[in-house]
Amino acid sequence: MAHAAAPVDAAPIAAALPESRDAKALHRMVFIGLAVLLAVLPFGLYPVFLMKVLCFALFALAFNLLLGYGGLLSFGHAAYFGMASYVSAYAAKNWGVTPEVAILAGTLTAALLGLAFGALAIRRQGIYFSMITLALAQMVFFFSLQAKMTGGEDGIQAVPRGRLFGLIDLADDRVLYVLVALIFFGGLLLIYRIIHSPFGQVLKAIRDNEPRAISLGYRTTRYKLAVFVLSTTLAGLAGATKAIVFQLASLTDVHWSMSGEVVLMTLVGGMGTVFGPIAGSFVIVAMENYLAEFGAWVTIIQGCVFVVCVLVFREGVVGLVARKLRKPL
Amino acid sequence: MSDIALETDDLTMEFKGFRAVNGVALRVRRGSIHALIGPNGAGKTTCFNLLTKFLTPTAGSIRYNGRDITRAKPADVARLGLVRSFQISAVFPHLTVKENVRIALQRHKRGDSFDFWRSERVLRALDAEALALVEAVGLSSFADTLAVELSYGRKRALEIATTLALDPEMLLLDEPMAGMGREDVDRTAELIRRISKDRTILMVEHNLSVVASLSDHITVLARGKILAEGDYATVSKDPRVVEAYIGAGHA
């Protein structure tokens, strides 16, 4: 064990605002506002676009739980998102299970994969941790490219949406939207609870000053592994749901650029803010959708947005608002 | 239980051929304030990191309450009641003063907190005790301030409150007075004297007047080895100690 005594000040600015009672009240308002938006938006916007945003938002929320609250930068989160997506698609198509079982199977896969990969990666810190997560994710990509079950370059196509609990037909986008919105909102509430739990309190302490947390008797690697698995599980839930929505699981979902995209969403929205990743994924997915006519230029525009974001408001869109309000969001 | 709280035998730490700590046999008596001093580069900090398990010795053994802890992990040593402080004031900067103390209470009273599904409201049960500790070190009016905003001396006071929350049997203090102004030094010395009741304290300290007034027993290290031991009067008269501090020729 060679821990430097000096703590690294890695905590994001936005998370540095004290939690107070009126902050809690503000959060409650945001939750209500989000619920209303989720109910109203499908009347104005295309449900499939919204479902895409929600899946990516949940993915980014899961990623931010690890980065913003665990202080761990995983550069291989596509592995959990993508593998869950494959398993969910495979289960729905080849085993003919109902969509909720398919989604659960995908989520569980991501949890187990997260446990195995996390146990390896968590032994190293900083950039080495990120590199190990990347290397392991690349292995998953290679597996997905070669294995029979994933369909190689074709992916798994024409996945049936099926009937929820064998009863409710999900073929209608609006019906499926309700399910996806519920999954998203449930995931968001769970993440909020994790952050504001006794466990979350320990996570904040570890992120702030790990050697000190150790000296208080916390076995910090176990906490880091726990938050890693929670994060991969929720990333898996997002990926598994996405497979049902788009009736497709493909190499895009496990590609390293997907891992990059989720970093982008989190940073644009505001790392270490509860709601930031939602805003970030909305911005990124909207850009991809509405700027699609520019073709390859989308990537360049995204790159510029990212650079501007980091230069002008390092704490992200929501982080900026939080600082103005002097309350954590 | 024996009279010795912490003891080492032939404690050695070698870094690529350089022996920072060389065959140190330390005995810390239960209930005493024991100071570890020595000139720069004597191996005090290395020794300290070995005792707190942040480094693993290349040879030798460490026993705490008769139990071999040579290969134990730092978090586990803390759970046995052997708690360290850090040279750089070790607080959780983005937690409030109260939360800093509470995070220690949380570990001490609840054990592990893997309950991510429970609301942090359950921690309010610890608030009263946390505030009592905050008051004990004179930080009551800062209870809801983020630790990052505290002055240096107050950070140290907070750190001591946090450490005390674990109700440790033995404290290892790494230069508790480092970088402090005169006023803070006096206040901290008083605090250490107060908490030393029913506790064993081992500290590394540069400030010799503090060492003289606080400690019952002193071990002088030089070049990784024990040079002299005893109370302040004995040690300060030892010609080898004077030579190590001032240099040959001046002695």
TrEMBL record, chain A:
<dbReference type="InterPro" id="IPR043428">
    <property type="entry name" value="LivM-like"/>
</dbReference>
<feature type="transmembrane region" description="Helical">
    <location>
        <begin position="175"/>
        <end position="195"/>
    </location>
</feature>
<dbReference type="GO" id="GO:0005886">
    <property type="term" value="C:plasma membrane"/>
</dbReference>
<feature type="transmembrane region" description="Helical">
    <location>
        <begin position="294"/>
        <end position="313"/>
    </location>
</feature>
<feature type="transmembrane region" description="Helical">
    <location>
        <begin position="53"/>
        <end position="81"/>
    </location>
</feature>
<keyword id="KW-0472">Membrane</keyword>
<keyword id="KW-1003">Cell membrane</keyword>
<protein>
    <submittedName>
        <fullName>Branched-chain amino acid ABC transporter permease</fullName>
    </submittedName>
</protein>
<feature type="transmembrane region" description="Helical">
    <location>
        <begin position="25"/>
        <end position="46"/>
    </location>
</feature>
<dbReference type="Pfam" id="PF02653">
    <property type="entry name" value="BPD_transp_2"/>
</dbReference>
<keyword id="KW-0812">Transmembrane</keyword>
<feature type="transmembrane region" description="Helical">
    <location>
        <begin position="225"/>
        <end position="250"/>
    </location>
</feature>
<keyword id="KW-1133">Transmembrane helix</keyword>
<feature type="transmembrane region" description="Helical">
    <location>
        <begin position="101"/>
        <end position="120"/>
    </location>
</feature>
<feature type="transmembrane region" description="Helical">
    <location>
        <begin position="262"/>
        <end position="287"/>
    </location>
</feature>
<dbReference type="InterPro" id="IPR001851">
    <property type="entry name" value="ABC_transp_permease"/>
</dbReference>
<feature type="transmembrane region" description="Helical">
    <location>
        <begin position="127"/>
        <end position="145"/>
    </location>
</feature>
<dbReference type="GO" id="GO:0015658">
    <property type="term" value="F:branched-chain amino acid transmembrane transporter activity"/>
</dbReference>
Automatic annotation (TrEMBL), chain B:
<protein>
    <submittedName>
        <fullName>ABC transporter ATP-binding protein</fullName>
    </submittedName>
</protein>
<dbReference type="GO" id="GO:0005524">
    <property type="term" value="F:ATP binding"/>
</dbReference>
<keyword id="KW-0067">ATP-binding</keyword>
<dbReference type="GO" id="GO:0005886">
    <property type="term" value="C:plasma membrane"/>
</dbReference>
<dbReference type="InterPro" id="IPR003593">
    <property type="entry name" value="AAA+_ATPase"/>
</dbReference>
<dbReference type="Pfam" id="PF12399">
    <property type="entry name" value="BCA_ABC_TP_C"/>
</dbReference>
<dbReference type="GO" id="GO:0016887">
    <property type="term" value="F:ATP hydrolysis activity"/>
</dbReference>
<keyword id="KW-0547">Nucleotide-binding</keyword>
<dbReference type="Pfam" id="PF00005">
    <property type="entry name" value="ABC_tran"/>
</dbReference>
<dbReference type="InterPro" id="IPR003439">
    <property type="entry name" value="ABC_transporter-like_ATP-bd"/>
</dbReference>
<feature type="domain" description="ABC transporter">
    <location>
        <begin position="6"/>
        <end position="248"/>
    </location>
</feature>
<dbReference type="InterPro" id="IPR032823">
    <property type="entry name" value="BCA_ABC_TP_C"/>
</dbReference>
<dbReference type="InterPro" id="IPR027417">
    <property type="entry name" value="P-loop_NTPase"/>
</dbReference>
<dbReference type="InterPro" id="IPR051120">
    <property type="entry name" value="ABC_AA/LPS_Transport"/>
</dbReference>
<keyword id="KW-0813">Transport</keyword>
